[in-house]
Amino acid sequence: MKSLGMKLVIIEDEALSAKRLAKMITEIVPNAQILAKLESVSESLVWFKENPKPDLIFLDIQLNDGSGFDILKALSDYPKIIFTTAYEQYALDAFKHNSIDYLLKPIDASELKSTFEKLANIKATETTQYQENIDNLKSQFPSGVRERFLVKIGPQFKSIATNDIKYFFYSDGLTYLQTEESALPIDYTLDQLKDELDPKLFFRINRQFIIKISSIKEIHSYFNSRLLLTLSPTFKEEVIVSRERVLNFKIWAGM
Which residue ranges does the record assign to the HTH LytTR-type domain (predicted)? Predict the structure, then answer.
């Protein structure tokens, strides 16, 4: 197949699957540039923040730390996307209805070649409709509860299980997750986190904090009908439940 110098990104959490897919791509489109092979939502968000948009993404729907659609939420506009999935028929019907290309795992080389040929025929005038189709598809695959976060520490990434996180806080322009040992910066806002955490375990008490119920050591009454919390690990400043959130906090905490 004739190459157009296409620049690609593969997002796949199984290393062997990503390697196999990359090999098939280079055999079908010899001059294609595979810019990155990414393994998680968190790693992908960092990459797209720091790099220009590629021509094409191979996107696994189900990743270890969330959904591929979590990545699309962070993009202002979409490149061409080929979804890779092991989903059942109901999900495949959603792809077909929205005219979006997908490959069912394990990926077959002939199907991959056919998909490349179809993408080559997408006209520039169809771009707006394509963007709308992706948006429609996103609404049919709601994000699930996040099980892990990938934190960048220097040149390396560290995977943190949500079970090991005590609370999240915002300070000096950055959002941090707090484990028993340390506070680590993450590339999320508290608004984004609120929608990706189990609401039975985590609660946003004010503009600065989302806390885990197991992190609460003590609860005290505070002036202006607020509550003062003592957390574990201890935070350096007072941790206050804002007045407008006290009632819902009490319900959540079983008070």
Answer: 149-255
